[in-house]
Each structure stands twice: as C-alpha cells, then as structure tokens.
TrEMBL record:
One of its GO terms (molecular function) is methyltransferase activity. The keyword 4Fe-4S does not apply. The lineage of its organism: Bacteria, Pseudomonadati, Acidobacteriota, Terriglobia, Terriglobales. It comes from the Bacteria. Residues 47-139 form the Methyltransferase domain. This is Trans-aconitate methyltransferase. The keyword Transmembrane does not apply. CDD domains: AdoMet_MTases. GO terms for biological process: methylation. It holds the Pfam family Methyltransf_25. Keywords: Methyltransferase, Transferase.
Amino acid sequence: MTTPGNSAPPATGQIWNTEAYAANGRFVATLATDVVALLAPQPGEHILDLGCGDGALTEQLAATGAIVTGVDASPSMLAAARERNLHSTTSFALDHHDATALPYNQQFDAVFSNAALHWINGASGHQAMLSCVHRALRSENPQARFVAEMGGQGNVAAIRTALQAVLAPFHIDAEATAASFFPSPALYRRLLESAGFTIQSIELIPRPTPLSNGMESWLNTFRNGVLDRLNPHDRAVALANTIALLEPTLRDADGNWIADYVRLRFHATLR
C-alpha cells in the first residue's frame, strides 16, 4: 500500500504529461467553440489566454487577428505551446506565470480562459487570480472583458466519487489531492463581483463528453497527480476498481464511455 509519506509526487495538484494530453484531452479545445464565440475576439485586440496549456486555442485566437499572449504555470505545457508556435502560420507570445501572481497591468482588452481555472485551488486562490485579471484589463476600454469556461458544480462527480472510494483504503484523499475547484454560479458570481467585475452572463452547462480513448486514459491524463501517489501495482488495482465502479453509469451498451462533465461559463466586464 502506498501512503502519503512517499517522496516523488507533490502533495496536491495535477502533473501534466503533454503527450497524454494531446492524445486524450484534445476534446477540451475542440469543445470550446461556444466560449470562443462569447469572447468574440477582434483583429488588433490584445488578449490574454490564461492557462493556455499546449497552445491549441491560443493559436486559434491568434488566427482571428488578435494579438494574443498565452500564459501557463506548467513548464511542460508551455514547451508544447512554444513548439506549436514555432510551426504555426500565426504567432503569439508565451509567458510562464502562476495565475495567482500575474504581472500584467492595464495591458489587455480581454482575458480568456478555457478548462483551466478549476485547477486553481480554493476560493482564496481564485480571489488572488481575479484580482490579477482585473488589474491586467485596460480600464479605459469599455469593451474590456473576462470570458471563461471551467469545471462547475457537479463536474465529473461520478468519477470523483469513485476515486474517493477506491483510494480511501490507500489513505489518500482523492479530492484534497486533486485540489480542483468546481464552484456554483452563485459562488462564482460573488467572487467576480467582490473582485470588481460586473456579470454579463454566468451559467452552469451539463456537457456529457464522449471519451474516445476510454476511462483509463482519462484517469491517467486528468488524475495522474492523484494516481502517481501509488506504486505501480496499487495504481493498476486502483484504476481497475475505479473503472469497475463507473461502468454501470458512464459506459453504454456499446462500450462507449461518457464523462459527466459540467461547465461553468461566464462573461464579466469591469465595473
């Protein structure tokens, strides 16, 4: 049995494997059409892509003629984004910063984020991030806006519940270790308003999401920060037990896996 005393993986959070993400997480960018439409990027606008990951959406935003800067806290993701930028027909800048400690001041017409903010732990982390975003936006621009989509209340609830149950005998609190934050619209409205934003829209969107490579690949990609706390044998056992728990609810009669995603999407402007 692996205990939390093991050296190697960090106590909390996610570790990104860019190859696994490219193979198993491309749907994240593919399903961002609606939130990009809500952003409505314009040629010449300065846009910050917060939590840009491997740059797939950053590249798409730059192709609209916007002047885009991608920022991420993961060195491996930024390396993948720089490689993409090197071979892209459009160009964009890339910075390495934590979302809770952004250095920007009155530099952007819009801040955009897709499927990244839920990796910031807790309300206090979000308060710090929102303060940074507010400061980064150009107050003299009446169109300055923060448009984002993230995991919301109930996101991957079945998966999280199964992991919590399976990892309890290994003395691992899967929820605390994953350190994800999936707020309700009411909670996030309060956080945005307290940071000086006016809410134009905010909604919770159920989005059952097909997993073309199956549940095991999803778990190894999006919960490896939790699973890496186990030795190889225990990890294999935990994966098998989690999958067995999830099969009755998330796998259909044809063997297709559907993850129980719920997204929180919002559009906020400076007050």
